[in-house]
């Protein structure tokens, strides 16, 4: 995930083979130094570091009451399709705006398992890269690799190219 954005800037075509969608949220300051004010608070207020760390992780996940997964979490999650669910608000729903409202792409990106059931994943350009004309998200499972390219379960062969 972390390499798709920089690769897509230079490659003529990128196929992203997604095995399982992840709960993802952006971190605007990902990879940047922590502000001096935050460092001071961490150094001078007992427990602040733990709270700050918790808030950094908790902000990655959606509120399941607003955005229930498609399967596995109660009747509400099974009964509603992605386009019928209440529109969530806040940083956890950023993918909807970052993919330009593309419902087909949103459906491919929406996990079908409960938040907090896997490790957090940080978006550092993933969603934006998926909207590029030269990037295609493939969700059909890979069946085999051949001399022509990668064949998926739906019979499509994604040709291997070298630039």
Helix count, per DSSP? 7
Strand order in the largest sheet: 5-6-7
Give the oligomeric state of the chains in this entry, treating copies of one chain as homo and distinct chains as hetero: single chain
Question: In what range is the share of β-strand residues?
Answer: 15-25%
Low-confidence stretches: 60-92
Q: Major beta sheet, specifics?
A: 3 strands, antiparallel
Net shape: elongated
Q: What does the radius of gyration come to?
A: 19 Å
**Total number of strands:** 7
Topology as H/E string? Answer: HEEHHHHHEHEEEE
**Beginning-to-end CA distance, first to last residue:** 21 Å
State the helical fraction: 25-40%
Mean pLDDT: 75
Structural class: alpha/beta
């Amino acid at each position: 995930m972390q390499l798709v954005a920089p690769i897509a800037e230079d490659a003529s075509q990128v196929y992203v083979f997604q095995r399982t969608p992840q709960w993802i949220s952006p971190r605007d300051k990902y990879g940047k130094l922590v502000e001096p004010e935050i460092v001071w608070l961490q150094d001078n207020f007992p427990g602040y570091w733990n709270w700050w760390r918790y808030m950094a992780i908790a902000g990655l996940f959606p509120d399941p009451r607003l955005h229930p997964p498609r399967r596995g979490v109660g009747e509400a999650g099974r009964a509603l399709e992605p386009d019928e669910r209440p529109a969530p608000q806040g940083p956890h729903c950023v993918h909807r705006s970052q993919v330009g409202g593309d419902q087909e792409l949103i459906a491919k990106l929406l996990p079908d398992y409960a938040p907090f059931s896997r490790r957090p994943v940080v978006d550092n350009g993933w969603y934006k890269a998926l909207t590029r004309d030269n990037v295609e998200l493939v969700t059909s499972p890979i069946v085999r690799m051949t001399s022509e390219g990668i064949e998926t379960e739906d019979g499509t062969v994604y040709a291997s190219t070298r630039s």
